[in-house]
């Protein structure tokens, strides 16, 4: 197996990938961005890519939501949760008072803003393609326009030349990022476990009153809970949006399958991005009348009526 991930080594994305069994022994290809990682899957250069999809502070990772919603189809086959803890690093000998500019990934910056305002209020922010890319740019011999970087503590274990100026600088202790492993659409459907998630892309089919309500109704009437819904611009015309949605359940659950049938009628260009086990193993609560058995019994009853059999 060959896996792409947002590199270089030491990113949170790499930590998510290393949690996949077999990934330590597999070939891991660090790339410079989420779209590049997904393009490598589409071209067949790698078998799958690990990408961030949801961040506890910034919400949905728009680079991922947009790149999987458009272009040729992809499938999410697995998710991973990574606890996020940040350190501030700098070349050995740097004092906190010397820091004028700090680099990191934009999502990491969003998660340490409070700490920065308090401890380095005048510091400039220099965007980087990842947290590890920012830190490695500080290694001896490179000349960059910043003095410190925000990254994972793992980077310092791998590069003791860097010094930790401050630990645990995240504004939200307990921050978590959700990552997904994305493969091509012919990847086998992960088995149903009872603690599953399904990810969908639903273009707003018609711009009219009640269109969103009609979409949501498909889930509500089948007892399908939504765990995330975000609207994103399609990028084509101003005002044209799609919804990126996560629901509790697997496409092999009757209630989810029935909701998809309804959704496809209401919105024919709905895109299925995959059903996969939840990393937190949280089992969905399903009322009796939304269970597989209730759907089976009701469908058999209607089939009987259509066949003119006993009522
Ligand atoms: O830069 C990294 O280390 C990443 O893996 C990316 C990323 C993200 O996109 O949210 C992942 C987790 C952290 O929240 C910060 C950055």
TrEMBL record:
For the site Essential for prephenate dehydratase activity, which positions are given? 177
> What's the protein called, per UniProt?
Prephenate dehydratase
Source organism, top-level taxon? Bacteria
- The protein's organism comes out as Kocuria dechangensis
* Catalytic reactions of this protein: prephenate + H(+) = 3-phenylpyruvate + CO2 + H2O
- Could you tell me the keywords of this UniProt record? Amino-acid biosynthesis, Aromatic amino acid biosynthesis, Lyase, Phenylalanine biosynthesis
* Chain ranges of the ACT domain: 200-277
Which NCBIfam families does the entry mention?
A: PRK11898.1
Q: What Pfam families does the record tag this protein with?
A: ACT, PDT
EC number of this enzyme: 4.2.1.51
**Which GO BP terms sit in this record?**
L-phenylalanine biosynthetic process
Q: Which Gene3D superfamilies did the record assign?
A: 3.30.70.260, Periplasmic binding protein-like II
Q: Taxonomy-wise, where does this protein's organism fall, top ranks first?
A: Bacteria, Bacillati, Actinomycetota, Actinomycetes, Micrococcales
Domain Prephenate dehydratase: where? 2-184
Please name the pathway: Amino-acid biosynthesis; L-phenylalanine biosynthesis; phenylpyruvate from prephenate: step 1/1
Record GO cellular component, one term: cytoplasm
Question: Which InterPro entries does the record associate with it?
Answer: ACT-like_dom_sf, ACT_dom, Chor_mutase/pphenate_deHydtase, Preph_deHydtase, Preph_deHydtase_CS
Q: Which GO terms describe its molecular function?
A: prephenate dehydratase activity
């Amino acid at each position: 197996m060959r896996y792409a991930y947002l590199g270089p080594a030491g990113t949170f994305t790499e930590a998510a990938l290393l949690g996949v069994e077999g990934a330590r022994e597999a070939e891991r290809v660090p790339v410079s961005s989420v779209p590049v990682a997904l393009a490598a899957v589409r071209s067949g250069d790698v078998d799958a890519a690990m990408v961030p999809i949801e961040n506890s502070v910034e919400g949905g990772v728009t680079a991922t939501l947009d790149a999987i919603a458009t272009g040729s189809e992809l499938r999410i086959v697995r998710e991973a949760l990574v606890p996020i803890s940040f350190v501030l690093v700098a070349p050995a000998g740097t004092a906190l008072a010397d820091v004028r500019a700090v680099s990191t990934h934009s999502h990491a910056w969003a998660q340490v803003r409070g700490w920065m305002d308090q401890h380095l209020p005048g510091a400039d922010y220099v965007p980087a393609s990842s947290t590890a890319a920012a830190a490695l740019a500080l290694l001896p011999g490179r000349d960059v326009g910043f003095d410190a970087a925000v990254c994972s503590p793992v980077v310092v274990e791998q590069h003791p030349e860097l010094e930790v100026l401050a630990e645990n600088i995240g504004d939200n202790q307990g921050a978590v990022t959700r990552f997904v492993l994305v493969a091509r659409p012919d990847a086998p459907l992960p088995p149903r476990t009872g603690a599953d998630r399904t990810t969908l892309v639903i273009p707003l089919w018609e711009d009219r009153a009640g269109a969103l309500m009609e979409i949501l109704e498909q889930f509500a009437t089948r007892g399908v809970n939504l765990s995330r819904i975000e609207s994103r611009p399609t990028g084509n015309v101003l005002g044209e949006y799609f919804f990126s949605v996560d629901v509790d359940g697997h496409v092999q659950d009757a209630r989810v399958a029935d909701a998809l049938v309804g959704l496809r009628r209401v919105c024919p260009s709905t895109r299925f991005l995959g059903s996969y086990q939840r990393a937190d193993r949280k089992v969905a609560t399903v009322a009796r009348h939304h269970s597989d058995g209730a759907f089976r019994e009701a469908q058999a009853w209607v089939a009987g009526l259509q066949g003119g059999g006993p009522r």
